[in-house]
Amino acid sequence: MFNLSLETALSSLRAQQLALDITSHNIANSNTPGYTRQRVNFAPNTPFPVPSLFAPMQPGQVGTGVVVASIERVRDTFMDIEYRKEVMNLGYWETRSDALDKIQLIINEPSDTGLNQLMDKFWNAWQELSKNPENLATRAVVQQTAQALAETFNHLRGQLDSLQNDLDFAVQTNVEEINSIARQIRDINDQIYKTNIVKFNANDLMDQRDELLNKLAKIIDFTLIDNNDGTVSIDIGGKKLVDGLNVNSFKVVKNANGFFDVQWSDGTPVNLTAQKGELSSNIVARDVDVQKMKDYMDSLANTLITEVNNLHHQGFVLGSTSPTPDGPDFFTGTDAKTIALSSAVSNNLNNIAAGATNSSGDGGIALQIAQLKDKLTMVLPGSTTPTATFNDFYRTIVSRLGVDAQEADRMYQNEQLLTKNLNNKRMESGGVSIDEEMTNMILYQNAYNAAARIVTAIDEMMDIVINRMGVVGR
């Protein structure tokens, strides 16, 4: 019976020692991102009846100590699912909000140097010229304000082009990140699979995989599938990016517009979920938000070029003796990117055709161009007929941009708060509490000490039996 007691005490010493090891591991990783605290589950060792001549008289089986049944992660799977859903939303709105903020910075309205102020100065310059059509200083003001207006169009369009290219590069970067994370998850799947074969719990590897899944969730929407062998599969739009020990990949291909389209490695398009993840957001910002603003700016510049040139062609240059209008192009180009002051006007102030006749002091055309400010020439988004002036159109698109940016920022703030709360709830169950670990350490330490006392007691009992009972054998 001494041997049985010693084995029972020894099992306790081993179990408590292992529990202390796990406690130490938890404390060591208390600040490790993605770490989930682990817990030791004890179970009584298999009992057995003591063989004896008086076996029928034994009250029951005798216990043989304790074993560590399992070492498990304390993790709420449901909270993980909810957290990743919101992380997908967070990734979308964070990226969208950032892109819209950059568009607002480019437009820079309202300001004293914005396009709206420059258009006002342009119309006012023509108004002044209609009063003094022969004044070279007034003509110079028209020339300079027109030059500044064209350059501002060019600058804004160039900035939008640059932002669009940056977003396109971000799409490529997202794809590279997705492929890298997918390969890492496949590798961890392989390690977990091998670990499970020998019936070990790959808790730390599962933490690493969960952390990678959280990173992936911020980039793209996916469905996670837990396989029976401990591996996971990742389904994106009905196709597997990771399938247990196998991995697929994305690639980017230039489309007709010169931007990257996202495809599977076999060339089939990837079905992205709307408003989920950074990748979807970068594509929307590139193809919708920025492109829409570029189209608006092009439409504004094109109409300005057309309307001003149409009137300018009907005018007479300063000092003209021609019986018919001889006004040259005032602007050249077709959109915000190419609009420029014509070389004829740029090189000679006299070529500004301010007069409706070749009579001295006639500023009729200059007045008509100035009156374009109040003419309904622009077609508002969603309309089919011109219902807005140049300035109204511009203010409308800037206002809509502001509304979109505010909505994106509000959604981003909401998602940020929501994911933070969900993460806190996850940490309440899965995070390491130093207070709890210290309490566990005391419990395991006392249990270890108690088991050691049992060993000491049995040693003393055996000493009595061996060394102090009788004198035979001495």
The helix/strand series, from N terminus to C terminus, equals HEEHHHHEEEEEEHEEHHEEHH
DSSP helix fraction: 55-70%
Instruction: Report the strand count.
Output: 12
Question: For the terminal residues, how far apart are their CA atoms?
Answer: 24 Å
How much of the residues is beta strand, in percent?
A: 5-15%
Which secondary-structure class do the elements indicate? alpha+beta
Q: Specify the biggest β-sheet.
A: 4 strands, antiparallel
Number of helices: 10
Low-confidence stretches: none
**Rounded to an integer, what's the Rg over CA atoms?**
39 Å
- Strand adjacency order, main sheet: 3-4-5-6
What's the number of structural domains? 2
Q: Based on Cα principal axes, name the global outline.
A: rod-shaped
Whole-number mean pLDDT: 92
Domain Flagellar hook-associated protein FlgK helical: 100-319
Family: Belongs to the flagella basal body rod proteins family.
Subcellular location: Bacterial flagellum; Secreted
Domain Flagellar basal-body/hook protein C-terminal: 426-467
Question: Which helices and strands occur, and which strands form pairs?
Answer:
Elements: H1 2-28, E1 38-44, E2 66-73, H2 77-107, H3 115-131, H4 136-197, H5 203-219, E3 223-226, E4 232-236, E5 239-243, E6 246-247, E7 250-254, E8 260-264, H6 277-313, E9 331-332, E10 340-341, H7 343-347, H8 364-371, E11 378-379, E12 386-388, H9 390-430, H10 434-468
Textual characterization of the structure:
The chain has 474 residues and is an alpha+beta fold. It is 59% helix and 11% strand. β4 (232-236) and β5 (239-243) form a beta hairpin. α2 packs parallel to α5 (203-219) and α6 (277-313) runs antiparallel to α9 (390-430). The chain is rod-shaped. It is found in: Bacterial flagellum; Secreted. Residues 426-467 form the Flagellar basal-body/hook protein C-terminal domain.
